[in-house]
Design goal:
By secondary structure, the protein is mainly α. The protein has 14 helices and six strands. The protein starts with a helix and ends with a strand.
Length: about 425
C-alpha cells in the first residue's frame, strides 16, 4: 500500500507540474491564459502517466544518462502518441500538431519533442523524485493518505464527466432541460450542468472539437483495430507466446519448462500484451519500410520488456527472467540480441501475422463473438487475480506467516509452493525493501 500511495503522489505531482508547463508555454506563445487540461482540475494526465512509468521503470538507471534519456524518451513518446490519437478519435481535432517539424510521425510525435521528453524524464528521475519524496514524507502518513484518497475521488468524478462529454452523451439526451425539469432531480440537473460546463470549457480551448460525431455501425465483428480485435490478438499472442517459449526452452535447455504467466492455462501475459500493443502501435504503418518496422520493434520491444520486468519485480517481488549472463544486457532485464528479436518479430507480425489473424477474427459471427469475448475477458481477469493472490500468498508464506483467512487457506491448499514452482520454475524471489 505504501508503494501505491507513493505512485499516486507522483502521479498528481507530475500531472500538476505538466499542467503548469503546458499552460506557461501556451501563455508565452499566445500571450493569454489557455487552459491546457482536458479535465476541470489543473492536471495533464499524460504527464502523470508517463512520469509514473518513467519513475518506476528507470529507477535502476539513475547513473546511466544515455539509457535514462533514451528510456524516458521512448515511454513519454508512446504516451504522447496514444493520447494524441485517442483525443483525435474522440473529438475530431488535434490538441497539438508537430506536422511542421522534421522527423514527425502523424504530427503527434517528433524527434525534437522526444529528445525534450528524454531530458525532462532523466532530470525528473535524477533530482525531482527525491525532492517530491522529501515533500511527501514531511506530511504525516494519516493526513497524506486521506488527502490522496480525496484527490482520487475528485479526479475520478472529473474523469467521468470528461469521458461522458467526449462520448457525446449530452447530445444523445433529447430535451435535456425538459427532462431535468420534469424529474426535478438535483442529481440530473447537476449532471447536466457539469456536462455542459465540461463541453463549453473544452470547446473554448479547442473550438474545432466535435461531440456529435456519428459512429458508423459495422456488420463485421471486431472491425478495425478496436477493443474486440485487440482482445483476440492478446488471447492468441498469449497462447502462442507460451507455446513458443516452451519449445525454445526445450530446444536450448533440453527440458520442458512452463512459461505461463497465470495459474490457469498456457498463457503468457507478456506476449499477449506485446502482440496487442504491437498491433495498436504499428498496424497503421504497415506500408512503411521493413527497416522502419524493425527499428520501431527493437526500441519499443526492449522498452516494453524492461518495463514488464520492473513491474513484476515491484508487484510480486519475483524476477521471472534474468539476462545477466547474456552480453550487452541492461540490468539483466533486456539484452541487445533479444531486442533485435523484438524488431524481427515486429516485421513478421505486421507483414504476415496481423493481416491473416485479423481476417480470421473478423469472420467470427457477431451475434456470439461479443458475448464470447466478454466471457473470456472475465476469465482472464479472474485468472490474473488468482495468480496475483497466489504469488502474494507465496511471499507471505516464505516469511513463515500462517494463513489469516479462508482465502489464504484455499491458496495454501491449491497453490502451494510445489505447484507454483511448476508453473513458475524460472522465477527467483527478490528482497523487497
Amino acid at each position: 500500500m505504501e508503494t501505491f500511495y507513493r505512485l499516486i503522489w507522483l502521479f498528481f505531482c507530475y500531472s500538476f507540474l505538466g499542467w503548469l508547463l503546458e499552460t506557461a508555454i501556451a501563455a508565452v506563445r499566445e500571450r493569454k491564459y489557455v487552459d491546457r487540461s482536458l479535465l476541470f482540475g489543473p492536471v495533464c494526465v499524460v504527464y502523470g502517466v508517463a512520469g509514473v512509468i518513467i519513475s518506476v521503470a528507470l529507477r535502476d538507471l539513475v547513473g546511466n544518462w544515455v539509457f535514462l534519456i533514451l528510456g524516458s524518451a521512448i515511454y513519454a513518446t508512446v504516451a504522447e502518441w496514444l493520447a494524441g490519437h485517442w483525443l483525435y478519435q474522440m473529438t475530431g481535432t488535434r490538441w497539438w500538431d508537430y506536422s511542421g517539424r522534421k522527423g514527425n510521425l502523424d504530427g503527434y510525435i517528433c524527434l525534437t519533442a522526444s529528445l525534450q521528453w528524454g531530458v525532462l524524464g532523466a532530470v525528473a528521475v535524477k533530482w525531482l523524485i527525491p525532492m517530491l519524496g522529501w515533500v511527501g514524507n514531511a506530511v504525516p502518513s494519516m493526513v497524506a493518505h486521506i488527502l490522496l484518497w480525496v484527490l482520487l475521488g475528485i479526479f475520478a468524478l472529473d474523469c467521468l464527466a470528461t469521458a461522458l462529454t467526449l462520448a457525446g452523451t449530452l447530445h444523445r439526451m433529447p430535451r435535456v432541460e425538459e427532462l431535468s425539469t420534469r424529474l426535478g432531480a438535483v442529481s440530473v440537473r447537476l449532471g447536466t450542468w457539469v456536462l455542459k460546463k465540461t463541453e463549453s470549457r473544452i470547446q473554448k480551448a479547442h473550438p474545432k472539437a466535435d461531440f456529435q460525431k456519428k459512429q458508423e455501425k459495422s456488420t463485421v465483428f471486431a472491425a478495425g483495430c478496436g477493443f474486440y480485435k485487440l482482445f483476440w490478438l492478446f488471447l492468441i499472442g498469449a497462447f502462442l507466446g507460451d507455446i513458443v517459449e516452451t519449445l525454445f526452452c526445450r530446444a536450448t535447455a533440453g527440458v520442458w519448462m512452463s512459461r505461463s504467466s497465470v495459474v490457469w492455462g498456457p498463457f503468457s501475459i507478456v506476449w499477449g500484451l506485446a502482440m496487442a500493443l504491437a498491433s495498436l502501435l504499428l498496424h497503421r504503418y504497415r506500408d512503411r519500410s521493413d527497416s522502419f518496422l524493425f527499428l520501431a520493434g527493437t526500441f519499443l520491444g526492449g522498452a516494453y520488456e524492461y518495463l514488464c520486468s520492473v513491474f513484476t519485480e515491484l508487484v510480486f517481488g519475483v524476477v521471472f527472467w534474468d539476462y545477466s549472463h547474456i552480453p550487452f544486457n541492461l540490468a539483466g532485464r533486456v539484452n541487445l540480441l533479444y531486442c533485435f528479436f523484438w524488431g524481427i518479430a515486429a516485421v513478421v507480425w505486421v507483414r504476415w501475422c496481423y493481416p491473416r489473424l485479423s481476417g480470421l477474427i473478423e469472420r467470427i459471427p457477431k451475434r456470439w463473438g461479443r458475448p464470447l469475448t466478454w466471457a473470456l475477458a472475465v476469465f482472464f481477469v479472474l485468472d490474473m487475480a488468482v495468480s496475483t493472490l497466489a504469488l502474494a500468498r507465496s511471499e507471505t508464506r516464505s516469511q513463515g506467516l500462517p494463513p489469516q483467512n479462508a482465502v489464504e487457506e484455499y491458496l495454501d491448499e491449491h497453490y502451494g509452493d510445489e505447484r507454483l514452482n511448476k508453473i513458475y520454475p524460472a522465477a527467483v524471489r527478490t528482497k523487497q525493501e
